Amino acid sequence: MDVEEPPAEPPLQPTRLYVKRWFIVLLFSSYSLCNSYQWIQYGIISNIFMRYYDVSTFTIDWMSMIYMLTYIPFIFPVTWLLDKKGLRVVALVATALNCAGTWIKVLSVRPDLFAVTFLGQFCCSCAQVFILGMPSTIASVWFGSEEVSTACSIGVFGNQLGIAIGFLLPPILVPNVEDMDELAGHIRNMFYITAGVATFLFILVIIVFQERPELPPTQAQARARSLPPEQYSYLASILRLVRNRPFMLLVVTYGLNVGCFYAVGTLLNRMIIIHYPGEEVNAGRIGLTIVIAGMVGSLICGIWLDKTKTYKQTTLVVYFMSLVGMVVYTSTLSLGHLWVVFITAGSLGFFMTGYLPLGFEFAVELTYPESEGTSSGLLNCSAQVFGIIFTICQGKIIDTYGTLPGNIFLCVFLLIGAGLTALIKSDLRRQKANKLVKIAAAAAMTDPGKECRAVTPMIQPQSVPPPSRD
Prior knowledge:
This protein is mostly helical. Helix content is about 75%, strand content about 0%. The protein contains 18 helices and no strands. The protein has helices at about 20-40, 45-55, 55-85, 85-105, 115-130, 135-140, 150-175, 180-210, 220-225, 235-240, 245-275, 280-310, 310-330, 340-365, 370-400, 405-420, 430-445, 455-460.
């Protein structure tokens, strides 16, 4: 009687790293920068826009919160589009919407046209739905396993640099002058500069941006490519993610941390002006300090992750230090020394913004081989929900009781988030897949007949790991 032989194992696929991957991630960072700059464009000079358009503080707050609100209903169709149509289509839609929004704002420079400027901001907020979930996808599609965290950090870096410029430039470009015609001229110039940059980047994306490299950068990405489209269900993927308990804990903790950052950024001008009247420019510089320190933190965390792969440990330490930074910032804001606020705000930004790429990359590890865009989308959706809640609540607390209770409110939720982060089980699925592939490659070199058998469970396209029960 013949013994049935096991089915042939799929061979290791050729992989290659292309120099163009750096141009792709830098181009993404550039148009992400242009979009995120506009998130805080109104809020950091909220008192000036309130006077020009004759609207309330809460109305100007919505110019930032619309970025958060828009994300919530549109993230699921956008991540579906990313899975079905790929990176290039999403990049084109993002830059087109951003470009359109900037030109609508150019047409809105008149005191009775606040609705028009809000429409422009709404278009830009729609664009950011197509942007926020892309860093981890670009990193996975274009970069090797030893550089994905660094690449993701560079993608996040562009977004944070845009916020930094959003804190810095508006107070300089739009000084608080009394003459309304002169003020309109300053606002118009600011909008024209933004529109010019957005248009240039849109054209550049049309010409340069590529869907994916010809050969995959890693065996994990090769496996993802080999999965037949008919075997992938977006709804089933969402359900698997929702049942993944470690990932859902990360969704909540990420939302708490980034939601606090959104609230601080949106209300920074108001908090600084309360204690340091007439310091609009320095409020912008403090915001710049927060984000620049955060960009340094993002890059350091990304490089550290690529070197150590200590995802949970690093995430927990950075989360706890975000809490410490918030406590120190809260306790020193009212001391009357701006230089102290610069230092404490910078320490807060280093850890709170540095946490962003950690959350993205930890999510990819916990959910592999699910789509990076889907996991990132759920993280960002949580951040937007908490961002809206925290911004509204903290704004009301500041108006009623002052800045100290408002900031203590955020400290409490950061403490809760740090505690929940400690409960996340570190199930690094992507790292396991890459390690098994290396074992298979070593086995193939010593015994070609054993090629890939050691990694069969991880590299066969039909083999999708079940959601973690832990």
